[in-house]
């Protein structure tokens, strides 16, 4: 997550951003996704962001820490500069009418980090793979359900970093040492969601399609997961009642994946454009 790019002319001939943008990556099928609040609590604690708390975030705290956090973004573009994107990022995420609200400021800061560190790179990878000549099969998700067992987290936190791993590996289905009771207090809806996610992942690993249960020991009636394509940008909203949607966080993805690279001196190719 913290870029340290060395373009050595042997292993890396160009920056990872250039390789993905020019679709010079290996053509493979992809199942990839993010949670809707990746920086909600776990990473805030791990990165010692003590200025993020239930009281919100002061203007001084934001102005102090934002340039440092944007160094992680600028590091993706050799020769890039935080100064080029500091004001555009501020304009993108902070409504002047709400600028004096510390709760709003905190929530927008956390979403900024979620988008910049996780969602935008994931969407960029989906776009790169979906646009390959061989049409790699791509399936994208965003987890929307915050499990009830994480009640120790602040109330403003939604689906946090790593929450999908608990469901994907069946943690809600573990039994206690007696085998007669559940080990953890997930709800039945959350256990069903865990079963769905495990089925989607196994189907994809087996057949290249999360909807194809050929060979499965048990069948599950699940929502159809649409394939992400260069034109549709469809993804699955994973929830206790999952649903398909399109163009995840569209305006902010365009900001991070098109506007920011331009500000860093990159020429960005977009659909219907002749730019390189």
Structure characterization notes:
This protein is of the alpha/beta class and 276 residues long. The protein has a single domain (28-263), classed as Alpha/Beta hydrolase fold, catalytic domain (Rossmann fold, 3-Layer(aba) Sandwich), CATH 3.40.50. Helices cover 39% and strands 8% of the residues. The chain contains eight helices and four strands. The chain has helices at residues 16-21, 42-46, 59-74, 82-93, 102-130, 163-168, 188-207, 250-263, and strands at 30-35, 138-143, 234-238, 243-246. The protein has a four-stranded mixed β-sheet, with helices on both faces. β3 and β4 form a beta hairpin. α3 (59-74) packs across α4 (82-93), α4 runs antiparallel to α8 (250-263) and α5 packs across α8 (250-263). The two termini are 27 Å apart.
Overview in brief:
The chain has helices at 16-21, 42-46, 59-74, 82-93, 102-130, 163-168, 188-207, 250-263, and strands at residues 30-35, 138-143, 234-238, 243-246. It has 276 residues and is of the alpha/beta class.
Please state roughly what percent of the residues sit in beta strands, choosing from under 5%, 5-15%, 15-25%, 25-35%, 35-45% or over 45%: 5-15%
* Computed structural class: alpha/beta
Instruction: Say which CATH homologous superfamily is assigned.
Output: Alpha/Beta hydrolase fold, catalytic domain
The CATH architecture is: 3-Layer(aba) Sandwich
Compute the average pLDDT. Answer: 91
Shape: globular
Most strands sheet: 4 strands, mixed
């Amino acid at each position: 997550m913290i870029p340290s790019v060395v373009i050595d002319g042997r292993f890396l001939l160009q920056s990872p951003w250039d390789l993905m943008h020019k679709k010079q990556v290996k053509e493979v099928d992809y199942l990839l996704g993010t949670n809707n609040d990746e920086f909600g609590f776990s990473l805030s604690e791990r990165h010692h962001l003590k200025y993020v708390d239930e009281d919100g975030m002061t203007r001084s705290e934001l102005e102090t820490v934002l340039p440092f956090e944007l160094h992680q973004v600028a590091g993706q573009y050799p020769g890039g500069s935080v100064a080029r994107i500091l004001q555009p990022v501020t304009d993108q995420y902070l409504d002047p009418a709400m600028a004096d609200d510390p709760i709003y400021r905190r929530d927008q800061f956390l979403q900024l980090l979620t988008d910049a560190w996780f969602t935008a790179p994931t969407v960029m990878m989906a776009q790169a793979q979906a646009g390959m000549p061989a049409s790699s099969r791509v399936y994208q998700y965003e987890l929307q359900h915050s499990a009830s067992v994480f009640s120790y987290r602040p109330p403003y936190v939604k689906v946090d970093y790593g929450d999908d791993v608990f469901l994907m590996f069946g943690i809600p289905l573990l039994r206690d040492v007696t085998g007669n009771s559940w080990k953890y207090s997930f709800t039945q809806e959350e256990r069903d969601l865990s079963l769905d996610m495990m089925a989607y992942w196994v189907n994809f690993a087996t057949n290249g399609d999360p909807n194809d249960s050929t060979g499965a020991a048990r069948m599950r009636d699940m929502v159809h997961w649409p394939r992400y394509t260069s034109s549709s940008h469809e993804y699955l909203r994973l929830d206790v009642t999952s649903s398909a949607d399109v163009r995840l966080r569209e305006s902010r993805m365009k900001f991070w994946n098109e506007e920011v690279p331009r500000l860093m001196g990159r020429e960005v190719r977009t659909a219907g454009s002749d730019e390189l």
